[in-house]
Amino acid sequence: MGVGSYSSSNHLALARCGILVVNLLAVFTAYLEERPCYVFDEWAADQDPVFKRVFYTELLPNLRARGKAVVVLSYDDQYFHLADRCLRLADGRLTELLPAQMEPQLSQQSL
Fold it and tell me: Which among 35, 81, 84, 95 is placed 20 to 30 Å from 63, CA to CA?
């Protein structure tokens, strides 16, 4: 089997799995490789709510407990309070959020 046919069949197999499954496989592969540093760029954005909660409340704390450096780029503000530090980039300015700013906010619907 040549490299070209392997690449084509590999690509088709990944396309069949769907992007969500590919993302799950990528994060678990990285997790098992014992890397010293992990960067997740909007990784949880397309995940279902249950796995998103597992990602923020179990997977990331486990990496931190194992001494890994973890950088998460996210709009999931309901999980900001779990971070050691939270930086916001807005209008070209980088600022650090205070702990009170990281707490989950009650939505108007829940009032």
Answer: 95
